[in-house]
What does this fold into?
Amino acid sequence: MRTWLLVLAVCACSGDDSHRHVSQPKTGITPNPPAEAGVPGAVGTLAESMAVSYWTTPDEQAGITAFTAKDWAAAKTALTAARAAIKDPNDPKAPRLELLLGLTDAELNDAASSAGHLAIAYKALPELSDYIGYHLARSLWLAHDPSALDIAQSVAKDSIVGADAEILVGDLLRGKGDWPAVIAYYRDYLAHHPNGPFRSEARFDLAEAIANAHGDAQESLKLYRQITIDDPLSSWTTKATAALKGQTVEPLTGGELITQGMVLFDNMRNPESEKAFSDALAGELKTALTEFKQTYR
It folds into this structure.
């Protein structure tokens, strides 16, 4: 259907009309007359009066207003009252209020209560299973409930919360202390998401897991070092730098300094980026001079 619409759009925008044939309307079919602007109820006319809120009671509306404003305490009070007022178990508002209460409790750091509400919404709203499943798994994790892992793993990787769920699975595996499994998981994650939004976190956790498994220490150091190159402004670089303290690490090459400098430049950190570029240039000149002396001494 989209292909046909695109074709029609391209044809409509053509500047050459010589090949067109005017189509005559089919007999017996009368096209709809254009709607008159300002006529209530006319086809194609929109008015503010047509917008009716899904939430109708004072408590519902107060809860939504507070939720939108991120006034979590007020939202909790109003949404709790709104949910209590619904007695019909088949009322479609009930699971939606449970979802809002679960998200609100998560913001209030009440993981156990959040998980209780979200579990109800998770069962009742399958069309939102990925979104609710991620938040439910996170609350269960914070509440130290072992069922969190299965739910987190059920979230579709291509959903809107897929990336968050994948990194949560890693956290849950780390919590089990099964370091070979953690290492395998993060290696696979980085292979599939080499430039993903959680790349630095995954690298750091992989390096830490390798160390905990008494694996290749040099691989851990390389992972920490790479974080400082590709993500110099993040908190993960702060942690990686601390992990590298006291370790023997190769200095950054000219190319690595340029990579780091470009990240700094793109984030408007001009003094830092200038230093990285200057260090890269100085290093390359020094290398070239050394090679020249060795060749022509």
Notes: The chain has three domains: 57-161, 177-250, 251-291.
